[in-house]
Design goal:
The protein is an alpha+beta fold. The chain contains 29 helices and 11 strands. It has a domain at 3-28 and 270-434 and 610-750. The chain is elongated.
């Protein structure tokens, strides 16, 4: 094959991949939600329910620093500038809408509910106290819903709902307005606006859209009113800052490392041509892997491509082995190919194990890697010898490789074997004593100090807290749900009195079971027959229309209360689920046991649940990596013999242990992203081991391995300086692991009994 024909074939391959991507990309639904990448430990119905009830979608904005009248003007300008329509990423919640819905609900529930004090007075026949309270409410300036006097002349349901709004709500003392809540703190007026996202706040695309709509509005207000103070609160702001910082660091560190890699390649090969070839190999492999994922999966996840950055390190390794072999002629290149083939086969086996694991994100990584590596191998095998001219290899680079190899050759075979055996044992023993794992999702990103201060200011001004978790109650019918919830509420009341929790809100506080409604109607009929009550009714001039016991439908509840119950309508779901949000509660094991004794009751905390799912991904990846390593070592035992396979296993153990020990020595607890870094380390270490077990010239192998290791350390190790814990952890793991792989790789040659023909 001529060089011209090879270039034509390569260009046609790239053109075909680009054409395929141009067709696939517009049809692809990208999943960028961090939580969606985690396995679902709960059933489908619970996932649906929790996604609809998470407080993470809410965000808050406080306007202060101006007189109350000016704040009203500012709030109206905010509302007027807010995007509307189906494509809007968020909307403001209006208290006026909530109050209107609540008024309608009061009308429906009139005469069907009452607070505990009123029920006790009814039971004891203390009707005059109820009459006096009703008169006070009737003469107050606060409005009453239409027709409520005819249906509930003693206003028992009105008193109950007003009490519920005060005791179960937050921010007591805030005045609901048409556009938000007005308040005052230390004689300083403020307005609180509540917003609601239309998407998961961890969805980077949605976050960018929401902030792109909101930020210009706030900037214009700040310019127009210099004294205006804006205080933000909500997960979306933290997610946006973390995403922006991560993108900035990846861009800056990535650019710096690519520049260093380019200079390294130019130093070794003394030509721009190998740099161009390397870039084309990497680019073609990435395009092929991306096309395969888009073709095979309906909803690829962006985080899968973060994990798939391991392709860069392995593809660069293939490129360097191929380019160095080309410099020594076709015979040397053909002797190099069996090692490259064995490296490819063993790595494909490893990723094939990830492909069969029941976790979509790892399946996507496997497809990307297997396709990309196969394409890079084909290019190196068939096209690289044709398109790459002979280049002058740096004498200094070769001399450095020879000097390093000479240091290892000074050791006897016996000492080398002792080192090979003792090193992984020592590293793994130290690792076992220091091992610390933390899957808390809050540790994945550092908290922005400015946003944390604003969160504290928000809570101080408004008295509102958003550290909510949920008690989930299952039932077949609404009556069963309400009765079971009342048992839960009795426990919550006790714990509230003990100071263990702040507030809760349950559907059974707003709607009663039919049996209790009937009992209330019986007590009211007794009251209506009382002389004092009859006199009260005559003064009002009303005839009581008794409310028949019946249940409201869930759709009749105000929007703010509809989250308290849901009918999942899924195959594995119960007919009804009650959702009781609880604030300021750190449940103990004994308390959870008490709730579960009621039956069909579960406790859910968003952060704890996300952390558990993060742990699930890590465990899946650890198991897959361990199984893949065993399969690869079994394959190597069959291909190169058990002795050399055992040596490679010890080498992998030392390098993998060093990769995990590095973060621990620097004070990090291990999490999912350290294991992702370990996958890269194991893949590269395996490549280095196979080539050092081959019969190729040591200098070329050391030079290729050294170049691959240095480029990988530059590309990934520099990330250890990141301020984002996730990125820093990944960088530290790869840096320590690949450094150990580079340091100990020659020991596989000095401990070998005989050459292994690959």
């Amino acid at each position: 094959m001529t060089a011209r024909r090879a270039w034509v074939l390569w260009c046609l391959l790239i053109a075909a991949l680009l054409f395929g991507l141009s067709v696939l990309v517009p049809q692809t639904h990208w999943n960028s939600s961090l939580t969606a990448a985690f396995p679902q430990e709960r059933g489908q119905w619970q996932s649906q329910l929790l996604s609809n009830n998470t407080v993470n979608r809410q965000f808050r904005l406080v306007l202060t620093g101006l007189p109350a009248a000016e704040l009203d003007t500012v709030a109206n300008e905010v509302l007027a500038s807010t995007p509307v329509g189906d494509k809007a990423a968020w909307h403001w919640q209006k208290p006026s809408d909530t109050l209107s819905e609540m008024t309608t609900f009061v009308q429906h529930s009139a005469g069907r509910i009452a607070n505990q004090a009123a029920r006790q007075q009814l039971a004891k026949g203390q009707f005059q106290s109820l009459i006096d309270a009703a008169w006070l409410r009737l003469v107050s300036p606060l409005p009453l819903p239409d027709d409520i006097i005819q249906r509930d002349p003693l206003l028992l349901s009105q008193f109950h709902l007003e009490q519920m709004l005060q005791t179960t709500g937050q921010g007591i003392g805030l005045q609901p307005m048409d556009f938000g809540y007005a308040g005052s703190h230390q004689k300083k007026a403020f307005l609180l606006l509540l917003g609601q996202l239309h998407f998961d706040p961890f969805d980077s695309a949605g976050t960018q859209q929401a902030l792109a709509e909101l930020t210009p509005i706030l900037e214009q207000l700040q310019q127009k009113y210099p004294e205006l103070q804006l205080i933000r609160s909500g997960v979306v702001f933290h997610a946006a800052v973390a995403s922006s910082r991560a993108q900035y660091e990846m861009t800056w560190y990535g650019g710096a490392s690519l520049l260093a890699i380019a200079l390294l390649i130019l130093f070794v090969f003394r030509s721009v041509y190998p740099l161009l070839i390397t870039g084309l190999l990497l680019g073609t492999g990435v395009l092929a892997g991306l096309a395969a994922v888009l073709w095979y999966f309906d909803s690829p996840h962006l985080i899968a491509f973060v994990f798939a950055t391991t392709l860069i390190g392995i593809a660069v390794d293939y490129a360097f082995h191929g380019m160095l072999a080309v410099q020594h002629g076709r015979p040397f290149f053909r002797r190099m190919l069996p090692g490259l083939q064995l490296s490819l086969l063993s790595t494909l086996i490893g990723y094939l194990v990830l492909f069969v694991l029941p976790l979509a994100i790892l399946n996507q990584v496997a497809v990307f890697m297997m396709t990309g590596m196969s394409v890079v191998y084909v290019l190196v095998h068939w096209l690289l010898p044709v398109v790459l001219p002979t280049c002058q290899i740096s004498i200094g680079a070769s001399a450095t490789a020879n000097r390093y190899l000479a240091l290892w050759h000074q050791l006897s075979m016996r000492r080398s074997r002792i080192i090979l055996l003792a090193t992984p044992i020592i590293i793994l023993a130290v690792l076992a004593t220091m091992l610390r794992v933390d899957d808390d999702v809050r540790t994945l990103n550092s908290i922005n100090p400015s946003l944390l201060e604003q969160e504290q200011q928000m809570q101080q001004l408004t008295g509102m807290r958003w550290d909510i978790q949920f008690v989930l109650v299952q039932a077949k019918q609404l009556d069963d749900l309400l009765i079971r919830e009342q048992q839960v509420v009795q426990l919550l009341q006790v714990w509230q009195q003990q100071g263990k929790l702040a507030h809760w809100q349950a559907l059974s506080d707003w709607i009663w079971p039919l049996s209790q409604q009937q009992e209330l109607q019986r007590q009211l009929q007794t009251a209506y027959n009382n002389v004092a009550v009859q006199d009260y009714l005559q003064q009002l001039g009303v005839v009581v229309n008794a409310a028949p016991p019946q249940h409201l439908t869930l759709s009749q509840l105000p929007a703010g209360l509809q989250m308290l119950a849901i009918a999942p309508n899924l195959a594995d779901a119960p007919a009804l689920v009650g959702v009781i949000p609880v604030q300021g509660w750190q449940p103990e094991y004994a308390e959870i046991e008490q709730l579960q004794k009621i039956g069909l009751v579960d406790v859910y905390h968003p952060v704890a649940d996300a952390s558990k799912r993060l742990q699930g991904v890590r465990l899946h990846l650890q198991q897959g990596l361990g199984l893949a390593a065993l399969c690869i070592l079994a394959f190597l035992c069959w291909h190169i013999g058990w002795k050399q396979a055992l040596a490679i296993a010890l080498y992998l153990g030392a390098c993998g242990g060093a990769a995990l020990l590095g973060p621990l020595l620097l004070g990090h607890a291990l999490n999912l992203f350290h294991v992702v870094g370990l996958v890269l380390v194991v893949a590269l270490t395996l490549d280095y081991a196979i080539f050092f077990s081959s019969n190729l010239a040591e200098t070329e192998v050391q030079l290729a391995v050294g170049l691959s290791a240095l480029t990988s350390m530059l590309a990934f190790g520099v990330l250890m300086f990141s301020q984002t814990p996730v990125i820093a952890g990944f960088g530290i793991t790869t840096l320590f692991g690949i450094a150990a792989a580079l340091l100990f790789a020659p020991i596989l040659r000095t401990t070998r009994v005989k050459d292994v023909v690959l």
